[in-house]
């Protein structure tokens, strides 16, 4: 059978987020140095590396929670290097926080409805009565169906299993209709079955957006991610698909003696 043509066409995944020469110093300590990244629509990109490699700092730089010391960041073709975090979130670069981002005493449905009325993903308008959110119910139900939580929509979020809380948290992030979704250790603390469920959801939500994730579970990275960037001491050690990165001697050495799998 003929191999697919390698020429660029309309199907070629486009770069939606890119960084060039990203650097961040903390009082003379260089936490991130000369990092280049290209994140593509429809792809899942993993940022991995030993503890202290600079992964969280890169996330904070991309989302503009931290200002880079040097380098540039482009989102959807626009330079966002000096843009405030709220504006970047409104443009579609959204970071999924941990479980603490959900409201345990609200129902699953109300968690998503509240997320749908957030103007920029960073603030919740608590003064609005929940009844004012009724018009958001159809969209909230659609999102819950997309992540397989429709059957528990009237449960209190706090009563969900750990894995399903993570899924709800992803659904509240999807409410912001991100073009680029940043996931910070989505499998942290999860049992085996939950990892499978959350992997399936991440794969399906990546169909129509770009996903960048920090993940320590290398089995998940191997299974889920199209492209991997390995950081060590703030710099890119290697980049490529899982097969090439996992065969890289420098990567193997970097992981030796760490707690990673
Ligand atoms: N606000 C800060 N002030 C000073 N140093 C910092 C600050 N934030 C991070 N660092 C340092 O920068 C380096 C990179 O930290 P970062 O948290 O980005 O690594 P990481 O790869 O996310 O690590 P982990 O896997 O442990 O979460 C570490 O040495 C850390 O101590």
UniProtKB/TrEMBL annotation:
<dbReference type="InterPro" id="IPR051120">
    <property type="entry name" value="ABC_AA/LPS_Transport"/>
</dbReference>
<dbReference type="Pfam" id="PF00005">
    <property type="entry name" value="ABC_tran"/>
</dbReference>
<dbReference type="InterPro" id="IPR003593">
    <property type="entry name" value="AAA+_ATPase"/>
</dbReference>
<dbReference type="GO" id="GO:0005524">
    <property type="term" value="F:ATP binding"/>
</dbReference>
<keyword id="KW-0813">Transport</keyword>
<feature type="domain" description="ABC transporter">
    <location>
        <begin position="17"/>
        <end position="258"/>
    </location>
</feature>
<keyword id="KW-0067">ATP-binding</keyword>
<keyword id="KW-0547">Nucleotide-binding</keyword>
<protein>
    <submittedName>
        <fullName>Branched-chain amino acid transport system ATP-binding protein</fullName>
    </submittedName>
</protein>
<dbReference type="InterPro" id="IPR003439">
    <property type="entry name" value="ABC_transporter-like_ATP-bd"/>
</dbReference>
<dbReference type="InterPro" id="IPR027417">
    <property type="entry name" value="P-loop_NTPase"/>
</dbReference>
């Amino acid at each position: 059978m003929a191999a697919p043509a390698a020429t660029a066409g309309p199907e070629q995944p486009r770069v939606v987020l890119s960084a060039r020469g990203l650097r961040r110093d903390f009082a003379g300590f260089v936490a991130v140095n000369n990092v280049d990244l290209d994140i593509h629509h429809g792809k899942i990109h993993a940022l991995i590396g030993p503890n202290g490699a600079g992964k969280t700092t890169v996330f904070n730089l991309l989302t503009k929670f931290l200002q880079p010391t040097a380098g540039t960041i482009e989102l959807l073709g626009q330079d966002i290097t000096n843009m405030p975090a709220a504006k970047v979130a409104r443009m579609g670069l959204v970071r999924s926080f941990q479980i603490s981002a959900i409201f345990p005493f609200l129902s699953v449905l109300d968690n998503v409805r509240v997320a749908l009325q957030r103007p920029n993903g960073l603030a919740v308008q608590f003064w609005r009565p929940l009844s004012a959110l009724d018009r958001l119910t159809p969209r909230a139900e659609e999102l819950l169906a997309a992540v397989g939580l429709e059957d528990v929509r009237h449960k209190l979020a706090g009563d969900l299993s750990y894995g399903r809380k993570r899924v709800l948290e992803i659904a509240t992030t999807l409410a912001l209709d991100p073009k680029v979704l940043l996931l910070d250790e989505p499998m942290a603390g999860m049992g085996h079955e939950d990892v499978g469920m959350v992997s399936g959801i991440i794969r399906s939500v990546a169909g129509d957006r770009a996903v960048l994730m920090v993940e320590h579970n290398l089995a998940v990275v191997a299974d889920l991610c199209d492209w991997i960037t390995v950081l060590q001491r703030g710099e890119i050690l290697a980049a490529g698909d899982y097969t090439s990165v996992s065969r890289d001697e420098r990567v193997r050495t970097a992981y030796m003696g760490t707690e990673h799998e």
